[in-house]
Amino acid sequence: MIKLIGSILILLGCGGYGLMLAMNYRKEVAALHQLVKAMDVMICELEYRLPPLPDLCRFAGDKTDGSVSTYFCNLADVLDKLESADVGTCTVSALKVTAKLPRYAASQLQALGQTLGRFDLQGQLTSLERCKKSCQGQLEVLEHHQPQRLRNYQTLGFCAGAALTILLI
After folding, report:
1. How buried is residue 163: exposed, middle or buried, by Cβ count under 10 Å (0-12/13-18/19+)?
2. Is residue 63 a contact partner of residue 37, using CB atoms and an 8 Å limit?
3. Is 102 helix (H, G, I), strand (E, B) or coil?
4. Helix (H) or strand (E) segment spanning residue 39
């Protein structure tokens, strides 16, 4: 009876890990979609209203969801407090306090933070467009492989659990 319960727990644990990997992959794709949406919103706002950087970040945070929204709200708060005169340093501070931000989105935001607030209007727009194109390129790669990867993660998780169960019995 103990071996049966242990086998079931091993199978469920490994299968759960595979499902968790698939869920994280979906979150990565969703975060990049939200980041592209934020870039679109920021470009439009800069072209027509030219708001200060904290207001621009707060507006982008209001128009997006999830961890990307949290990041932009955190960045706006850090910029309002003027913890540093350098936007790049503020970006790093906002990234540290933002939990559950997927790695591709975090790296895109860190790269954007190195140019945000440093140039004139045209330079800002160019920087935002570059970040948007980079996110779209990464999205294409992730979405192209998504069905296969999700299926592989889930299948390998349960197969690894079955293999461990067989080895231990």
Report:
1. middle
2. yes
3. coil
4. helix 2-48
Residue with tokens 């207001």: 55
Contacts 24+ apart (CB under 8 A), 40-44: 40/132, 42/128, 43/125, 43/128, 43/129, 43/132
What are the tokens at 162? Answer: 């079955």
Q: What are 45-75's pLDDT values in tens digits?
A: 988 888 888 898 999 999 999 889 999 999 9
Question: Which residue, among 58, 36, 54, 61, has the nearest Cα to 128 in the 3D structure?
Answer: 36
How far apart CA 112 and CA 110 sit, in angstroms, is: 5
Q: Which residues of the chain have pLDDT under 70?
A: 83-85
3-state DSSP assignment of residue 47: helix
What token pair was written down for 67?
A: 């961890």
Distances (CA, A) of 112 to 31, 44, 101, 142: 15, 17, 15, 20
